[in-house]
Structures are given as structure tokens and as C-alpha cells.
Specification:
Blueprint lengths: L1 H16 L1 H22 L9 E9 L4 H10 L6 E7 L3 H9 L5 E5 L3 H10 L9 E3 L7 H35 L13 H13 L20 H16 L1 H13 L2 H7 L4 H30 L7 H25 L3 H19 L10 H7 L3 H13 L5 H25 L8
Parallel strand pairs: 1-2, 1-3
Antiparallel strand pairs: 3-4
Helix pairs in contact: 1-11, 2-8, 3-6, 5-6, 6-7, 8-11, 8-13, 8-15, 9-12, 9-13, 11-12, 12-15, 12-16, 13-15, 15-16
Subcellular location: Cell membrane
Protein name: ABC-2 type transporter
Family: Belongs to the ABC-2 integral membrane protein family.
Amino acid sequence: MRTLWHIAKKDLLQVIKDKHSLILLLLVPLLLISIMGSAFGSAFSNNASVEFMVAVNNQDSGRVGDTIVKTLQGTNSSFKLNVKGYSTSQQVLQQVKDEKAVAGIIIPMGASQKLQDAASKGQTPNNVIQFYTRPNSRDERSTFTQQLVTGVINRQIDALYAGSAAVQQVQAVCQQPANTCNYATIKPEAISKTVGEASQTSKNISLVQMLTTGSAPRSNNFDQLLPGFAVLFALFGLNSAASTILQEKEEGTFRRLLIAPVPRYALLGGKLIAQFLLTLLQLSILFTIGYYVFKLNIGSWQAIALLLVSTSFATTGLGMLLVSIVKSRRQLTPIVTLTTLVTSAIGGSWWPLWSEPQWMQQIARIGITAWAIDGLNGVMIFGKGFSDVQFNILGLLGYGLICFFLALRLFRFQEQSA
């Protein structure tokens, strides 16, 4: 056991001597996290409201055009529409072409009358409103705007059909033999309008009582970004540690140590401890700075500390396994880079893990990142405690142990001679 600690101490002293590498180990992640956090603003915040512009040309003098504009100007928890009116349709099209407006809406003259005429005849009108977006646009903002406009039109049609049905019913009653009506006093347009407006009037009746239970999710854009990039750079740090091991192997250091009475597990175990402590130090400093500078919602410090320890152990174990598989330093960099980027991409380092399809979330469990990010997000964003993330902690510790034992079995302490 003493030999194991001596090897770990030797490796740590070598790393500490290279002060420039230590600074970069912390400076690069912090710089990237700061840039990403500033660029995305509060994109991950549950209080965020996306603001965008919609260009409108309302040529209609009736109820339809007025209702569409008022609906677009209403507030929404996710989107805030800046509705700008233009006098010509060409101005609206130009705003969309210049990408100043997410969508352009043209309400032609007589749109309300067109709906009224169609309803009185029992017909369904087509192409009443012109809605413009850029080609091949899949922007959620334009989809949301289109849904608002479509909803207004559908409600208007329902109201007009209700009014038309009322007129037909009045006329049917008047035609009964025992009834006497003065047809001059029956004004179909007035009846249709009154009934239609009444059908759209909100009574502010709430039949469902909205209640909440549990803890409300708390989110800060850095609550998602910092854990993701911290784990990402912890994995990238494996390249340096693994490269050092391969260099010692190529230079014959391991071969000379095998002559001494040193257990094989102590050679890799000592290096695992050194890299584990270095990774844990890196993660701890990043989260501490994040707490004081970026105002992270840490939640349970106990759960976070155990997640960082288990993540560091799993990361180091994976590094030992990669060292045992590759044969040279030339092979190492592309393998570490590929492993890091793929597991980080699907594991939640770059975007929320819960936003991915279910099948991708399951595949992501192959890597370390998903286990770590799922636990960290659970504690920091969803207010979970130790008991809620203990499965993640145990999974990471088990991951590290499996990788280390596989590394002991596969690692060649000296190259076989031909």
C-alpha cells in the first residue's frame, strides 16, 4: 500500500511542477463556460421569455383583423411577440426576407366579410389569411405564431357558424303555422353577429383548480452549462495522464519497475489515485468558483460532493482502460477525443439530457457523462437529495471499478518481443 502512495505522490509532484498546465486546466473551462453562459443568456432559465418580431399588414376593417392583432399582442410565458404594423404587404415581405421578422402576416381587405359570407352559405373558406416565413423554416417561434393565427380564425368561423345557425332557427320558428312573424324586423346579420360575439365572450369560469406539489425546478443557465463542460474537460484531461503512462511504458520505466518487488496493481493503482485527485481538484475548484461567481444553485452539498468524487473515480478508471487498449501515444489522442465528444454530446454536456429522445438517453448511459450530468442536474435544477441520486453515485463508482479491473487485465507492462 505504501508503494501505491509513493507512485501517486511522484505523479502528483510532476504535475504540480508544470504550473502553466495547471492554470490552463482551470482557465480554459472557465473561459468557455463564461462565453457560453453570456451567449445563451437565460436560455435554460424557466423564467426565460423569448422575444421576437412579427410583421403585420392589416387591410381588414372587420372583427377578424382586429382580433388577430390583439391576440398576437397578448403575453405568453415562453414567447413575447413584438407586433409591428405595416401599410403595405411588400413591406411585410421585405421584413421576412431581411430576417428582421420571424413571420409576416397579411390580412386582406374583406377577410371578415369573406368568413361571414361563407358561414351564411354553410361553406368552409380557404386561404383567408396569408402567413409568410422563410423557406424550410422550422423555427418554433413561427410555428407558435401560426398556431395563434389559426386559433383565431377557427374561433371566428365557429362563432359565425353559430350565428348563422341561430338565424336559420329563427326563420324556421317563424315558418311554423301557428306563429306570426314580421320578417321586416328579422335582421339576419344582426342576429348572426350578436350570437357569434356571445359565443366568444369569456365568462372567466374555472372548472379546473390548478395546484402544485413538490419542489419547483430552479434553473440558472450556468446550472446546465458548468456541470456539462466541467465533466467534458475532466474527460479531456485523460489525454495528458494517459500519454504520460504510455511514455513511461515506451521508455521502459515499467519494465525496470517489474524487476523490483512492486505489485502490478500498485503501478496502475498509484497512477489512478494521482489522476483521481487531480480530476477531483479540478471539478471541485470549478464548482466552487461557479457557486460564488456564477451563482450556481448547488442544493445539497453532500450529494454534489459525492457525485464529484464518483465522477472523478469513473473518469480516471476509464482513462486507465483506454491506456490498456491503445498501443501508442499516436493512437491515444483520437481515441480519447472521439470518446469524449461522443459521450458528451449524447450525455447532456452541451444540451439538457432530458430534451433528447428516450432511446438516445438510454444509449447515453454507456458513457460516464450521462450518469454524472443526470445526477448533477437532478440536485442543482430539480432539488433532489442524496437518496434521489445515490443510484447515479453507485453507478459511477461501479463504472470506475469495472474499468480499472479491465485495465489491470489488459494492460501490458512490457511489450512482447517478436
